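Narrative progress, year one. The postdoctoral researcher (J.K.) led the effort to move from monomer predictions toward full complexes, under supervision of the PI. The following entry was the first complex the group processed end to end, covering 574 residues in total.
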Amino acid sequence: MKIAVLSGKGGTGKTLVSVNLAAIAKQAMYIDCDVEEPNGHLFFKPTDLSEKAVTTNVPLVDSKLCDGCKKCVEFCKFNALAYTAKNLIVFNEVCHFCGGCIIVCPQKALTAKERTIGKIQRGISRNVAVHTGIMNTGEASGIPIIEKLLTYGSSKQDKQIFIDCPPGSACIVMETIKDADYCILTAEPTIFGAHNLKMVYELVKLFKKPFGVVLNKCLDGENPSEDFCIEKDIKILCRIPFDNELGALNSNAEIAVWKSKRYHDLFSHLYEVVLKEAKRA
Amino acid sequence: MKELLILSGKGGTGKTTIAGAFVKLSSVRAYADCDVDAPNLHLIFGCGDTPKSTNYYGLPKANINADLCIKCDKCRGNCQFGAITFSDVYKVNHFACEGCSVCHLVCPVNAVSMIPAVSGELMLYENEQRVFSTAQLKMGSGTSGMLVTKVKRQMKDAASGADLAIIDGSPGIGCPVIASISGVDLVLVVAEPSLSGISDMERIIATAQKFGTPTAVCVNKYDTCLGNTKKIEEICKNRGLPFVGKIPFDPQAVIAVNNGQAITDVDCKSGLAVKGVYKNAMKLLHNVANGKQ
């Protein structure tokens, strides 16, 4: 079973929920797809680490062959190439590697060259196989890292797989939920939270994914995210209170279910509810 | 125009809440929300007004004419994004298509055309006092950096005489963040005193520095973990990064936001603290912008 945890807004508790659910499961895999800001590994502190670089291709120019026709520059839709002072320059970070420049060059002056954009770190923490994607700073897109990360989850049928998604509802998030069996949406009790919940709600609807909502940081008083769930008849899986104990554990990157009986009970219950909901779907 | 950009790396640290307070405190004429993926600043400042709205076109998407197609498979074979599938006919998945037009290039019978596609909406709130530029990327779109650039350009065009601009950024360190950093005078990082927050803060600082942009740091909800707040202050000191202040956790801030108000609109401790952060940030912005000239 693959369960993706997502939210439109950042800081609503994606990592909190996915890390603790993975820690509750008997055999679990935790995949951190928030490759721009991966944090799950800070909680799990996995050991037996292995690392693998993730590469993509970029064009390499053979300046002896390039005759300055600029066909590649004209073709590139991402403005990743420029010809100045009789030199063809490649801006690696913005290149999407569509390969068009290589095809279009009449002199065959361009070839594909591998370039590292980040890495995947794998390790073990108690019952959890921890997989983390880490994008290098200065890179524009971590999608190739996410694609590679998700291949690790595809063969592990015996494990519960929890996918910690990046925030938002852009293409990078669609990539992470594409193969999920169930989606958990986390939301906080502000109008910002409710507005961004609506966006991911539309995303999971579009992908026809079964889903439910975890209301996080609940305070006394109004909760616009809860109002939205009631209005749209969305299953509320659990309410996590705003609480100093949990806040302190989270700040220090401690896994709540390993440290606190109260949160062990709360997340065990959430785990049961999620499995039941996912099976029903 | 001096530009101040508010970033955080980690989401949910309080970028928009602080941007909203800065807008109120400065009575700034030009401001923008560059979090095109999940914009929220308009929830404080857009109420009651109808923005001028224009469609945003990202790159055009491929379309295959089945009547012309000879099923040579060149389009599918050359697509690096797995956007073309075949069962009876060749089809393009518009969510996966990045608009590179390689399929159009390699098709021997001209069966592929590139069709303009709306990828989002640009919005401009404008009156005598202010220009507020924002946008919403369409779900599943991937050209957010380009839209961020358009949000900033729209703001600058509409408020060309303004001497200050406040820009709310997006979480992360990727394409939209890099696009938002381009050309700004100062990045203010809103950090959160958790180990996750510190890790993310270090990554956004590294990103801003890669582009040579002066960077300052403040801490929000600082009293939720004093030890980590101290760590952040030490990191700043060691790296020579200006530390411009700290704001306490304040349930009143949640209430203010839910009423569509800035935290400086109500009498509360976070509103008071953000004034100090604002003063320090403005002084710094003034210094770096003048130093550059």
